[in-house]
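Summary for the lay section of the report: proteins are chains of building blocks that fold into shapes. Here we show the chain for tRNA wybutosine-synthesizing protein 4 and then a coded description of the shape we predicted for it.
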Amino acid sequence: MLVQDQSEVDRPSEAKVKGSSKPKIKAKAQLHDDSVMGTNNSSIVSKRSVERIYFPDEPHFFRYFVKKPQRRAPLINRGYWLRMKAIDHVVYQFLKLKSKKPKVVINLGCGYDPLPWQTISRYPEVCQDVKFIDIDYKDLMLKKRDVVMKTLELKSMFSNLEAGNSGDVLLRSDQYLQLGCDLRDLPRLDQALRSVVDTDACQILFVSEVAITYMPSEAVDALIKWTSALPQAQFCLLEQLLPNGIEHPFAQTMMAHFNKLTTPLGSVEKYPTVAHQEQRFRSLGWSKASARNLWDLWGAPEFMDSSERQKLDEVEPFDEWEEFALFGTHYYVLVAKTENLEGSGLTPGLEHEMRQESSSSTESLLEIEITYNVYPTSQGYRRFAAPFECKSSNNKQSCIGNFAGMGLNTRVSGYDVYTTCDQKISESSVGHQKIPSSRMCHTLTELGDTGALLIGGRTSPDNALPDCWLYHKYLDIWERVEDLPQPRYRHSAVCIGPGLILVTGGRSNSINILADQLVWSRASGWVPCTIVSPTIPPATYGSTLICFQSSDPVEATGCLAGGIAADGLVQKQVWTWKVEKASNSKYNIFFDLQIGAELPIQKLSTSLARFGASVVPHNDQIYIVGGIIKNDLLADDHQVCRLNRDFTCSFVKLSFGADCPKPLLVGVSAMSCDNSILIMGGSAVCFSFGTFWNKGCYTLSLPNEVQKMSTEDASSRRLAWQYSNTIDAAMPAKQAHEPPTIDQPHNLVTIPRRKLNSVVDFQNVLSAGKPVVFEGLDIGPCKEKWTSDYLKDQVGPDRMVVVHQASTEHMDFKTKNFAYVSKSFGDFIDNIESGEKLYLRSLSAEKPSELPANIENDFPTLAKDFRLPPELEFVAKNAHSSPLRLSGPVIMWLHYDVMANVLCQVRGSKRLLLFPPSDVRYFDFEPGASSSSINVFDNLGGPKTARTHPHEVLMNPGDVLFLPPLWLHTTSPASGVSIAVNVFFRNLQSGYAAGKDVYGNRDLQVYEKGRQDITKIIKSFDGCSPDVREFYLQRLADEFQQKSS
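The coded shape description reads as follows.
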């Protein structure tokens, strides 16, 4: 997935930055104006991205206001598409009203938005005798006027176009006008408008899209009241909401973002919900007002049909539904009217009805004790992972693993281990295993004492995985079993009996939704179910699949609800199902749609019908945790619910405070163990405002079990879960790289980590000549930005690069067990993402055989994201080369570099083994060679390395390793793809080899001269007998060794 622009912000309108009449305040306001003006391009850059991708067949008008287009992330594109669609819909509905009066569309706080040109181009038949008026900050409108006057494609659409020389009217024509006016100065605004249109004789639509929200609420209320006094007017307002209050994680992130930019939202806390906004307009003089949040509007049939939603999936891969719903529920569009004008197309939403329906079906509200344990730094951060019960050190205590998923910067492999606070994990239980590859949106379904079955998942929305793995809990090993008949992710899986798992739905790519049902068993592998019912559910993914415990060996029952179907909507239907064993290896499945308010299960559809929820079986009950629902944001008291076998439901009340922050129950992993539920991980990209992560795990103590125990017994069992450690390994053959196992010898040294405080501090490290890892240095936004999609977009997917293509995981420079092949950069990225053994060490783009690599010249579009911090000034001033390194699952050969260098880890993790220069004698380096064929990962602790002095380091994103000259080192990726920038620099004043040194590893001049002298000495004995020659050469060798020591 692409990383969005974290500085994205809609440009506040001029009214919010205007000061009062006091000169001192005016000066401050002007300074504020300047900073706000700098953010003006962010919103239109995003809209330009949408225009380019989603409207290829329409005239493009944002292009004239955006000089450098950028492709935004799919979430940003779809969010802005929906905003643009909402405004366009309301404007069109207004324009097609039957009326003899002229119509006027006034854009309040318009910025560079080309709404008039778009509307006239799309709907010329309803734009006759319509005037469009843009109003905003005067300095900005002057710039917009200049663009219009200099662009033939813009000004040619209007007749009698002329620029104003003074006053507030900056541009006028028969169809379009520009006003530069302070929206808080209502008398002046009224005068300016009346000077260009007869406001009493027109039908007027006021539009404001995320503009007046930056004004103080009192000023906005006055503006709304003033507009309501016009005889025939409508007001369309699109801006932010706080549906669950300011403490909701998305709301926190959004508000913090705008506050940081010194552009706080002026009205959202006073009018936080749709109901508040509707009441606001009615109280300020508007006779009617209806509002809907954008997630609700997304599914409204009068706003958009299913075919239009489906076509969006064909534009670009999209699987950010939870984040899209969070965005949509925190924005709304409102249409108010001063009289009964038909055709706005905005009917009342369903939010209140749905909330009442959920509340009426609640039989009770459970209060559950909740405990929070914060994560260690950079640990525990996973989303869209999968939980399972894993082996503990003594095979008695319970441990829970959270496998794979998306980490802070990229997909992560391995799994996090959680224990109760009284447990300790022995060192022997923490090691490297042969485990499945990194992935997300997979399932891990418990099979009791047998273990758990890992099914599918994805790397990207168009790269589903077919592989399945059986985790043997007590052996603590992973066994690959039969692949799925078709790759899938976002499917639902549940255990339906001893050794049996039912799988339904899912996606095989970003377009195709799977409609089949499969049963897995160890004996038969995957067997498709035969549907024997007259009705069947629609194909969905991310559904809630529940199975009720049964002692019947040939029949299982449960229900299926929610999920997203091909129409892009969360389904509200609830189906019961029954699976029966028809023969030794065949299964029948029967579905029954629950219809009618008299059925308890249908009343609970808003509790069950979720997308992306965690389903947690516990005894005879099912707990449903988090996810998203249709139309609205889950209420705080509905985030977790408990379903009984008779379909009665209790919602869980969770209490939070300073010591227990409110979690975001999106992308979490949840599992029951003993009498508690552990919630791990969880995160969401909050539109363009930043990413929110749950910074700890939560333990829910289940009350029905606690009440059955004595006080003493309960206290001993209600221990909170906490993060313990990470089992970090990579993939076995065919799926991924298996990281080398390192036996821990007694002399393995961990490279020290430290902060770097100054240039002088680095000089001291340089003088010491020992490897050090620097933490906390600022290497630029590359850590966040350099996703696979971003790299391909910036470098160009068709650019050809030369890469190492290995035949085995350990590359050997001496035997050349790899080939140099040319690949397109896009194919290379896709290949290493899928686990192919490839490695790129960038060369000079201009003269690869003559010049050293330089990221600024070779990858200028990436170089802007990477920088050496000021503390490494010496490195920058003495830099020799800066190659970009991208690696799949391969081990780099053991070698040394003659030049000192810093290795800056950008994304992924990398394990290095290092040896001091004095160990060179133990690794069979041939004379004049700088590489060895020994795979030290396999041999560490063995006889070949018994006398060496190994050092080890695990490089994480943002780490910078100082590597002194001549230190032997080798690397292996520890978590999928590794991306790094290596900067070589000259730390000696003289002595480097003369001539070309493309790779920075030519030996020093004195060594090259010494080898020449050795050749001459040996040649001087050519006239001697072999015995005499050997005798004296040995004596010279001994003398050389004595004098050198």
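Put simply, here is one thing we learned. The domain at 365-727 is CATH 2.120.10.80 (Neuraminidase).
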